[in-house]
Amino acid sequence: MSIGKLVSFDSSRGFGFIRPEDGGPDVFVHVNDIGLDEDELRQGRVFEFDMTEGDRGPKAVNLSVAGGQPSPPPPHKTKHRSGSGQLNAAEHKRLITELLLDASPALTAGEILTIRDRLTVFAEQHGWLDA
Questions:
Q1: Rg for the chain (alpha carbons), in Å?
Q2: Nearest to 96, CA basis, from 76, 84, 80
Q3: 3-state secondary structure string across the chain
Q4: What string of pLDDT tens digits covers the 131 residues of the chain?
Q5: In this structure, which topology does domain 2-67 adopt according to CATH?
Q6: pTM strictly above 0.85
Q7: What end-to-end distance do the CA atoms of the chain give, in Å?
Q8: Region (Disordered) spans which residues (predicted)?
Q9: Is residue 41 left, alpha or beta, with left meaning phi > 0 and alpha meaning psi from -120 to 50?
Q10: Sequence-separated (6 or more) residues with CB below 8 Å from residue 16
């Protein structure tokens, strides 16, 4: 399994490219090979994927949002809070990931995961998250 950030996606043509976090050339991704709805392919989002050799080089298949987290619905439709008014750890991680992607698209997947995990531990230590 590889991890990388979607650097481009042309929805009218059905393809784009993922930049692997461990370096190397960008990996081709086609809408027919991803296993996700096309609307989940947003530039800057970090994905886990399997890599295979396509006709013209490496090709990403079986995409999932990095960290095994479910893909978030659009922000204006999301109900994030539990009954106590606090986020649970999974909701917090997802929101932090989206915030980091929006704030700094140049962050690598590894950097995002490290920052996100440290912020989650910090929030848990201060009682800011639902158990």
A1: 16
A2: 80
A3: CEEEEEEEEECCCCEEEEEECCCCCCEEEEHHHCCCCHHHCCCCCEEEEEEEEECCEEEEEEEEEHHHCCCCCCHHHCCCCCCCCCEEHHHHHHHHHHHHHHHCCCCCHHHHHHHHHHHHHHHHHCCCEEC
A4: 889 999 988 888 888 899 999 888 899 998 888 777 777 778 888 999 998 888 878 899 988 888 654 444 444 434 444 455 577 887 878 778 777 777 777 777 778 888 888 888 888 888 888 76
A5: OB fold (Dihydrolipoamide Acetyltransferase, E2P) (2.40.50)
A6: no
A7: 30
A8: 52-88
A9: beta
A10: 6, 7, 8, 9, 10, 28, 29, 41
The residue type found at 64 is: S
Burial annotation 102-123 (CB, 10 A radius, 16+ → b, else e): eeeeebbbeebbebbeeebeeb
In this structure, what token pair is assigned to residue 72?
A: 């978030």
Residue type, 99: L
Q: Residue 39 corresponds to which tokens in the numbers above?
A: 């609307």
Q: How many CA atoms lie within 13 A of 111 on its CB side?
A: 11
Q: Tokens representing 106? A: 């140049």
Amino acid at 56: R
